Amino acid sequence: MFESIPQALLPLSLAFVMFSMGMSLSLDDFKRIVHYPKAVILGLGLQLLFLPVLAIAIIYICQLSFVEAAGLFLLSLCPGGATSNFFSYLAKGNVALSISLTAITSLIVPFTLPVIFIFFVSFWEQQQQGFDLPVGLMMAQLILVTLVPVILGMCIKQLLPSLTENRIANVKLASSALMLLVVIGLILANINLFTQKVGIGTLAVMLLVCSALTCSLLIAKQLLTQRSDIKTICLEVGVQNAGTAMMVAHTVLQMPELATIPLMYGILMNLPVFVFIFWARKVR
């Protein structure tokens, strides 16, 4: 009975988080690509193309099983969201650029994630037997749980700006608290599976975070001039939305074991990210 509660609450909590994020967005955030065209294109390219390739490299380096590999690859398809915006603020990055990237990816990911993920699964010919990937259902549920709440939050902000301004902090706090409780519940409900994967899972997760931060830093320094933009690109690429990956694994695919790596990531990624933020704050 207990095991089903956090799993049932996961889509609701993710939708609540996306709704609170939508309340902080506006149409200007989508139009800002005109002001930061190179940075936005670079950020999208690294998030949507480079990260999946990086995840595949780590899968082969660590010799992950199908379940572990699928969990890590699924995670690589879920850009950061509101968490990366907060981290960009802490690192003294370009928060406007971070929000714009979040706004754009929130529209794209519900469509790109199912398509790219099915291509990944199709390459695992032996392990693919018995693995049914409902692409249409995945896309529909991602739209319902991530895209619709974002649009709803934006509409409320547009129609009731004063109310939104007064309530947004409380909404964000409540959504974050609910997601935290759900994550704790998922850990407790899947503690045996979680502990079994802790060794190889820790290695894979830390490799993904550290290599994403490092590679994006090296690439961004070659193509961008503003330090604040470089910091933001690194955090947008280095921070993934574990909640979305867990929702797909639990709710859409009905495979809790796929959520183990994203769940570990949601906990472990904070260490290298805060080390990066500490360094970034020292760089002017």
Structure commentary:
With 284 residues, this protein is mostly helical. 81% of the residues lie in helices and 0% in strands. Helix 5 (82-90) packs antiparallel against helix 11 (227-238), helix 6 (95-122) runs antiparallel to helix 7 and helix 10 crosses helix 13 (260-268). The chain is globular, with a radius of gyration of 18 Å.
Write down the overall mean pLDDT: 81
For the report, how would you describe the main beta sheet? none
User: What's the total count of β strands?
Assistant: 0
Shape: globular
Question: Quick recap of the structure?
Answer:
The protein is mainly α.
Outline the fold blueprint.
Layout: H1 4-22, H2 27-31, H3 37-62, H4 66-76, H5 82-90, H6 95-122, H7 135-159, H8 161-189, H9 191-196, H10 198-223, H11 227-238, H12 242-252, H13 260-268, H14 270-282
Helix pairs in contact: 1-7, 1-8, 1-12, 3-4, 3-6, 3-10, 3-11, 5-6, 5-11, 6-7, 6-11, 7-8, 10-11, 10-13, 12-13
Main location: membrane
Membrane topology: Multi-pass membrane protein
Organism: Thalassotalea loyana
Task: Sum up the structure in keywords.
mainly alpha, 284 residues, 0% strand, single chain, globular
